[in-house]
Design a protein that fits this description.
The protein folds into two domains: 101 residues, NAD(P)-binding Rossmann-like Domain (Rossmann fold), CATH 3.40.50.720; 108 residues, no CATH class. Helix content is 51%, strand content 12%. The strands form two sheets. It has a five-stranded mixed β-sheet. A two-stranded parallel ribbon has the order 1-2.
């Protein structure tokens, strides 16, 4: 990919030169006319600069019908490139999926843009296409597996620590349980859901909520709220959890 990189433009020639040096490829330019011979243009800029930069591109005297424009590693999807699309360009976005080998990407946009993205990442690298304009939905899915999953892991470790287990041991236990859960889901999907919530074991859940309240009302509330949402997500009637909360919460608070 590096050997194919051509002109590099930024807010200043000096910054473009610095970017080119960091990448070890391409060459800095001052004028957008330098992109006239490029079939693919990659955009990687902060979101607050996006509108101005795209407007400037749209106003450039370039043959957009012969070009593909890809947003790179941005929270925005190809929708922000609509002016370029109206001018005839194929538009899309490409985003790496974090991992140890960096050999997985997702892309959305026009068919031509996705085809160009596949060529761009090269052989041996997997590119997964998604529906046009679904980037925000994809990022929500990423958040479920990262920003929203980490608090669950932290809650598990902190609860295990409250039993007197050492920090490192608590992390090892939680890691094994999360890995087991992931393996079970990969094998059986939603059918792999197991535990007291699935069989509606009120006595076990009541004891757990009460024990959590003794240690941390925040953890108890987090446990209960997640249990409620999990039941709804898996299309269970959560009424038994509401009844349990009405009983367990006052008892845990000594009322």
């Amino acid at each position: 990919m590096k050997e194919r990189l051509g002109p590099v433009r930024s807010s200043s020639y000096r910054l473009a030169s610095r970017i080119s040096n960091i990448l070890g490829a391409g060459f800095p330019v001052e004028d957008l006319k330098a992109f006239a011979s490029c079939s693919v243009i990659l955009i990687s800029i902060p979101e607050h600069c996006m509108c101005g930069a795209i407007q400037e591109l749209a106003e450039a005297e370039l043959d957009w019908k012969a070009k593909t424009v890809l947003m790179c590693d941005s929270t925005c999807d190809s929708g922000v490139l609509r002016h370029l699309g109206e001018a005839g360009a194929a538009t899309g976005s490409i985003t790496p999926v974090d991992g140890p080998d960096g050999r997985l990407y997702v892309a959305e946009g026009d068919r031509k843009a996705i085809a160009q993205a596949k060529i761009l990442v090269g052989p041996g690298v997997k590119l997964i296409p998604m529906d046009h304009g679904r980037k925000s939905l994809y990022l929500a899915g990423v958040n479920f597996a990262t920003g929203l999953a980490l608090p669950l892991l932290a809650a598990s470790v902190e609860t295990l620590r409250a039993t007197g287990v050492e920090q490192n041991d608590a992390v090892v236990i939680a890691e094994r349980l999360f890995q087991r859960t992931l393996r079970a889901y990969l094998k059986g999907g939603r059918r792999a859901w197991e535990g007291e919530l699935v069989v509606k074991n009120q006595q076990a859940i009541r004891r757990q909520v009460q024990s959590l309240f003794e240690v941390s009302p925040h953890l108890a509330a987090y446990f209960y709220q997640n249990a409620m949402q999990a039941a709804k997500l898996f299309r269970q009637d959560p009424s038994w959890l509401k009844e349990l909360a009405e009983e367990a919460y006052p008892k845990a608070q000594g009322r």
